[in-house]
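Hi, here's the filled form for the chain we discussed.

Project: internal
Contact: R.S.
Residues: 183
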Amino acid sequence: MDQALKRFLKGRTPLAEEEMDWSGGGLELVQTRYTYALDEAAPPPVDLVTSVRALLTRGPNIMVMRDPGGEHIVPGGRIDEGEGLLEALKRELLEETGWTVGGEPALIGLFHYHIHSPKPVDYRYPYPDFLQLIYGAEADSHFPEAMEVGGFELGAEFRPQAIVQRLPLSLGEAALLRIVQEA
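And the returned structure, exactly as it came back:
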């Protein structure tokens, strides 16, 4: 494990840990989810961040995304070359949900991935560890025409928290939902 990542994660308590299989069986990894307090002095090692995501709210409602694998509550995606973290987050949310973000998104958590399988040929991301940052953000304006057509995401809609709690969320998503509800 990268030394900067090891220092950053030292003393943190995981919210959830799950084994995953990505790329149709070619990438076996473990995902560990952590909270991130706003008053923390140590930022995560940005060179290991591959994408940014958000728990997007609109008042008491939570954005729910639908993709070919089911539903989830953390829209977002990869950071383009030369793009800042918040710039990437706002672009990804607009492309996937059609919503802009009001105010400044707050970092509330992170997903740490550790790949157990051999490094795939042509793999261009940090290996064997990488991070996805999770922000809390409030939706502002809706521009459905800005949504990516033919992308991975099939739908996006706000639902009341009580309904979202009953979805078959991953352990980590359920933990992040609790953080938002407690705030």
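Let me know if anything looks off before we file it.
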